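Give me structure tokens for this 82-residue protein.
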Amino acid sequence: MNLMPYNTDAPRKATNLTVNSDLLAQARELGINLSALFEQQLVQAVREARRDAWIAENRQALAGYNQRVAERGSFGDRTRRF
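Here you go.
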């Protein structure tokens, strides 16, 4: 099961970015792999954006469910022994 939010087998594509020149020089001096770092951070940003979009899309249903649980409890409340 692939837990990545994208097709990891998709071909790589070159892109142009602008970045602070001093920061870039320091990263290169430290041997930081900019492509790998950018991709890791982009994965995180995509996950967060998808999560936020899902929450916004389902906010009303979640609020309704939480209201029902607050009023009536959950199924597990009747069966648990603690």
